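Hi X.,

You mentioned you wanted examples for the new student's onboarding notes, showing what a folding record looks like when two proteins sit in one file. Here is a clean example. The first protein comes first, with its sequence line followed by its structure tokens.
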Amino acid sequence: MATKPQFTIDNAPATGFHYRLAIFTGGGKFVDGYTLGVLSIALAVLPANFGMTPLYAGLVGSAALIGLFVGSISFGQLADRIGRRKLYQIDLAIFLTASILQFFVQDALQLFFIRLILGIAIGIDYAVGPTYLSEILPQKLRGPLLGSLAAVWRFGFLASIGVGVLLNSLNLGADAWRWILVSSAVPSAIVMLLRLGSPESPRWLVQQGRTAEAEAIVKKHIHRDAGIEDLVETFQNAPKARRSGIENLKLLFSRKWRTRTLFAGFFWIAQATPQTAIFTFLPSLFVALGLQSGLTPTLIQNAFFAVGGVVGMIIVNRFTRRGMLITTFWMMAVSVASLAVLPKPDAWLVITCLCIYAFIEAIAGNLQFVYPSELFPTSMRAAGVGMAAALSRIGAAIGTFVLPLVIAAYGAQVLMIGTVALLALGAFVSWKVAPETARRALEEETEPPTTNGHNQRESTTV
């Protein structure tokens, strides 16, 4: 009789492989944040003759978010059919190619299309990266290491601002914005090389019936005394993920799963819409709120953004997912409320409020890569995470497109009023429908709760 394995994937001890894979996956998030953040500095230093009107600024600013929608919703479903590993590696090649092409654009329309392609690559990484990492990590590491993806994203964003400001100070002339944008090719190339040789997700392999391959990966990379018998038992009666895209969409929005699908998308929308819009046009927003220059305050606020991501990574396992989500929504709303009330706030108040907002938003943003991965089973996890990311980008793209138009037509105060309202709505919706997934094995979420939601609200505080 075969000896029962000492460990499973969920209870295996932490190894160097787990941390290396977290670094490789986090590298993708660094590139995501860098690619999105670097645009804010490039837009601020574009020459006047480039033709970047408020309308084109909104289109270019939202292009990556539109592409992210397409990439996450399409390739998330594809990852459930063909596996995680191929897409995990391919998306960095797309990043590298499109990053280089930015240097050669001649007008705003060309820049829009290149940013659209970059957004598709980001969408692939949003859907596949957290899914892949969540399926390999043991339970005790899922919260902090998945949460670290958001922290690394914020450091990527901060790095792009720092590099952008540095390059702009080097007197590169009218082409400074080109060098700022193409700088994203460097981290893209590094992460692409790091990801070569990554194994397939053993959970996905077992779900496909390829148990021998899965067991070999588990014993080689996770622990020689680890096994997959628990997964085989879980998946023996489960259907293989060979559904078409339409079938996946129907399942995600079926009566059984639609509440979780819509919740995952909405909480991400409520977090990402103001965050993405504000950070894309942050230098201009600071000027609109009364500051003489926006570059230095932008760098300061992004530093708070990055530090908040680290704090969120550290504390994410110490609180319930549900309680952390609701509380941070209210804290963010309060942090910018004075900017919505006061028509002409002092400079120190503007900087303080937006720095506090950035810090709290970064803490809350850790849940974007943790929570959705815990809401869906392996057979539809990438599709579910991809759909949540896609839905979130609808709001983010609209917010980014509308922001320069709103500031030009109505001023920054109206923008702040809308931000507070959306954050308060996020808190209310989360209080009504958010399930609790913390401290559970990954496959315990294969069946959503069937009650009317009272049991989901057992813990509402952090």
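Then the second protein repeats the pattern, sequence line and then tokens:
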Amino acid sequence: MASMRKTKLEETAWVVDLEKAAAAAGDSPSSEAARYWHRHSIYRVPSCIKDLNRRAYHPQVVSLGPFHHSHPNLLPMETHKRRSLLHFLRRHRRRHKSSPLAEFAAAVAAVADELEGAYQGLAEEWPEEEVEERRERFLEMMVTDGCFLLEVMRTATGWEVNDYADDDPVFSSHGLLYTVPYIRRDMIMIENQLPLLVLEKLVAVETGIQENEDFINKLVLRFLSPEAWPMATGVGLALHPLDILRRSLLFGPAPTPRVPPETSPPPDDIIRSAEELYEAGIRFRRSPTSSLHDIRFDARRGVLHLPAIAVDDTTEYMLLNLMAFERLHTHAGGGNDVTAYVFFMDNMVDSARDVALLAARRIVVNTVGSDKAVARMFNGLSRDVVLEPVSALDDVHREVNAYCRRRWHRWRANLVHTYFRSPWSFLSLAAAVFLLVMTVMQTVYTVLPFYKGG
């Protein structure tokens, strides 16, 4: 009976199919899937992450790429995207006396496989369509979105002569003030990325210059973050705008752990809040650069150097999408530097008092108004986020904790926390000391005549 049941199971379709797949895969069953994984750089955010703050991962004005292309709320911008494409082509035709659309399409089509591979699960977006029809739609989308981004970035940065109408809803002064900031915010959504390879190919046809990676990197960074530190040249084309933003936050050499990770256990406790560190004698100083790598602790002087961070309406979205990118983009070995920084700041900022302390040192530049809102933002960023065992800030963490565990610094923190946290507690301490001194003096003056008389 058992052998008959086994024989029937061996003949079922799903068993046969899996046996064939296992035989074809050989010793590495995941090698076939891995050939696609290593090409991905633009991802769907899992529900376990997105459900915590859906607005942070969904574009509000414009769709870039296929993931949100047909969303009803984003369709009005499609008209403006098509207009920008016509402006782009008309301007090129006046310069070169030719019709360049076929050239642009051919340049993008040459890297279509690489572009499609950048999107995780793209085949599932249009499962009912034929491959050829899907490829045509995809190429049209890449060319249109790429030209639109070039037009927006050039107009906003003053690079290109503006040949749009004065009342244009996107490309006029009014549009740059009221519409472009939303486009800029949508460009940092991980699901709403456009591979910069598209822009490279379009610019190569437009200018005839094939080596334009540095130009594309600088153009995107100048649009996303005009105050950012200039990117290094010769580092290769970034993956997409979100990757550009991450690189701009992590410029400069990464700190080298003083102890090899395999022999260095993680810190045994969380870092204290900014106010608690201040009470323990640690002083805060603004780092000379804004790089998240420029965080260090001077144990001899008790000074913690931190880069400045401007907190505005887009900061939360930016950090959440950067953390999602670090979590999902595993094959590149890019590290967890942004996630480690967010955890570090979440531990340091517990209340509005911590924000006020860091703002007084020009480390937190608060443009949202309320210190409590900034504290609430930092406290919510790391919800349900797992930090890797080896973090980029482990050394700083250990040094700060070791400094706070010293006996004198513990006594100082307790003294400051108990007697110097408010004016009333300080006045109570001063009154107690004054009464003690007066009592001692009274005792001395009472006893002194007795000894003199004797």
